[in-house]
Amino acid sequence: MHSDPRQFAVANPFRQEVEEWQREAAIVTRDLVRVFGQKVAVNHLNLVVKRGEFFGFLGPNGAGKSTTIKMMVGLLRPTTGRVWVAGVDVWREPLQARRLMGVLPEQLNLYERLTGREFLTFTGHMYELPKGEIERRSSELLRLLALEEDADKLIIDYSVGMRKKIALAAALIHNPQVLFLDEPFEGIDPVSSRVIRDILQDLTRRGTTIFFSSHIMELVERLCSRVGIINQGVLVAEGTLQELRARASGTGDMPRDATLEDIFLNVIGVRNEEHNLSWLE
Ligand SMILES: Nc1ncnc2c1ncn2[C@@H]1O[C@H](COP(=O)(O)OP(=O)(O)OP(=O)(O)O)[C@@H](O)[C@H]1O
């Protein structure tokens, strides 16, 4: 181990090259670890997400998805390891990193006593956007996300889906380079779900990188250019859907037209067994 970075620079002749691809990538994690007591929630995660990718992050309940996202966005300090977003070290230059990213966390931390519109205005000011621009972007986001009618209602009176949508609007208002979304479609109705999908696809076409976690396999299959699967804190598969399919069918376990759900269940080791309650006759 090289604890002194200068020592590392001398010892590692590839350092410059490494730093170059780090700058070019949208997200890089190196040996990311998070331990809670005896529990290793994330175990030496090494991941590279390229700019403009729509990356789906999958895993069963408790696999480590939210913990990973929290470490990536600066909400939870890693036990060890490092994270770069758009070339910026998230834990060494947190303010600079925050400007480049939009975040929809799992647990929404909203200002309940503000109206939806006030919350967007507040967020826009935080990112030092000009007043006129904040108004323009807020109105457009509220209209697109069908929140116009409730824009002047307090957030405390919003439904689960409305809260998610206003949080998403706040994550988008500064036009971030990298967007982190933890379960963005949970609690969202089909109409808004379609709108959000369209917005996200448009964003990636314009070069935004999206890293999102979801349990909705069909959506991930439809939207994502690449997928990572985490199980018990370990990244167990990663690639395009075609690559994952080819790998799985190469082992003889999967048909060539396997769905993402088939691949997911196979990778995390769920066999095709009957699941019945013994006491139901
Ligand atoms: N603050 C915490 N204190 C202790 N343990 C935690 C804490 N946060 C997460 N964990 C544990 O870390 C593991 C990973 O949790 P995490 O929330 O990252 O999973 P997840 O993949 O997002 O799950 P889900 O799909 O259910 O949201 C779990 O075992 C969880 O109990």
Automatic annotation (TrEMBL):
- The ABC transporter domain extends over 27-257
Q: Does the keyword Secreted apply?
A: no
Question: Which CDD domains does the UniProt entry name for this protein?
Answer: ABC_DR_subfamily_A (cd03230)
Q: Which Gene3D superfamilies match?
A: P-loop containing nucleotide triphosphate hydrolases
Keyword DNA repair found = no
An annotated Gene Ontology molecular function: ATP binding
Q: Keywords of this protein's UniProt record, alphabetized?
A: ATP-binding, Nucleotide-binding, Transport
Top-level division of the source organism's lineage: Bacteria
What PANTHER family is this protein classified in?
ABC TRANSPORTER ATP-BINDING PROTEIN, DOXORUBICIN RESISTANCE ATP-BINDING PROTEIN DRRA
Q: What is this protein called?
A: ABC transporter ATP-binding protein
